Amino acid sequence: MFPIYLGASNEINILSNGNIIAYGSSSVSIMNNTDFGSIGTCNQVSKIYTIQNTGNGPLVCSGINISGSNAAEFTVSGISFPATILAGNSTTFTISFSPLTNGTRSAIVHVMNDDCDEADYNFSVQGTALTSVIGNYPSASINAGGSIAITPTSVPTNTAVLNVSASAGFAGSLSADPLTGIVQVTNAQPAGIYTITIFVGQCAIKNFVLTVEPPSCMVVSILASPIQCYGGASTDRYSNWRNTAIWRNRKLLICVRNIFIHCFRWRRLHSIK
Q1: Which of 23, 33, 156, 235 is disulfide-compatible with 16, CB 3.0–4.6 A?
Q2: Radius of gyration in angstroms for the set of CA atoms belonging to the chain, rounded to a whole number
Q3: Residues paired with 163 in a beta bridge
Q4: Is the overall model pTM greater than 0.85, yes or no?
Q5: Cα dist. 117→51, 61, 63, 108, 193 in Å?
Q6: For position 267, what pLDDT does the model report?
């Protein structure tokens, strides 16, 4: 005995990487992306799957569910439900694998649809999680507005993506290289003490303290050599200032923050006491 269907009928088929994923398959393969391979914990890898309608009537996909002991580590995206696929057409969806624990992680994908003999088109997926490791970071100090690179004691392993963030109030820029682990701090500000946290994917695994010092000060000497200052001030006016004893060898302590000083404008000589 076998069923006979009359009139228009749909027919679901699922494939990935150009290879068919058999209905009810419990085996996994890299060839059809049911095996996600090996990645570090807290990293993520995504695969795209195609739902085909090889029949002569519309196919309606009502949802995609994931079951199994590690179902939470596999997520579906890139499709809205209900998804109607006309005869001879197809649509795609994405499954992302984001392991949180070491070892082999597995689940079963259920593509729910109105194909009368494959209404729950299910297949197994699997991935292997490796421990993500990165070295320790030293504490660092930098003047406000400056930049610095902080290098860990060892390069990362099993880390595809590194993210970095700072505690509240930090307004500079932060980035991290997943190959070297180096954290780049750019235009650090404002002055303060911050905790810098390094993430593998969404998992915080390392941190260090960054101290941003107030802007550094420099001593500027006012020399007796001729300069042209005070807008269009005359040379005669400057000569009078230059020949005043109090003007010679005076030093001004000037705090500079991101400013290049071209010239000092002095309106009155007696303003220097």
Answers
A1: 33
A2: 33
A3: 199
A4: no
A5: 16, 14, 17, 19, 64
A6: 35
Of 149, 135, 140, 105, residue with least CA distance to 200: 135
pLDDT digits (tens, 9 = 90+) for 35-86: 999 999 999 999 999 999 999 999 999 999 999 999 999 999 999 999 999 9
CB environment 220-256: b (16+ within 10 A), e (fewer)? eebeeeeeeeeeeeeeeeeeebbeeeebeeeeeeeee
Are 99 and 39 within 8 A, CB to CB?
A: yes
Q: Closest by alpha carbon to 11, among 122, 113, 123?
A: 113
Confirm or reject CATH 2.40.480.10 for domain 12-130, answering yes or no: no
Residues forming beta bridges with residue 253, ordered by sequence position: 219
Give the Cα separation of 84 and 89 in Å (integer).
10
Model pLDDT, residue 204: 87
Confidence tier at 149 by pLDDT (50, 70, 90): very high
- What are the strands of the beta sheet with 12-16, ordered from one edge? 19-20, 12-16, 45-53, 90-97, 74-77
Sketch the domain layout of the chain as residue ranges. Answer: 12-130, 146-213, 217-271
Alpha-helix residue ranges (DSSP H) falling in the chain = 235-242
By residue count, the chain amounts to: 273
Give the helix/strand (H/E) hosting 256: none
Look at residue 160 in the predicted model and tell me its pLDDT: 87
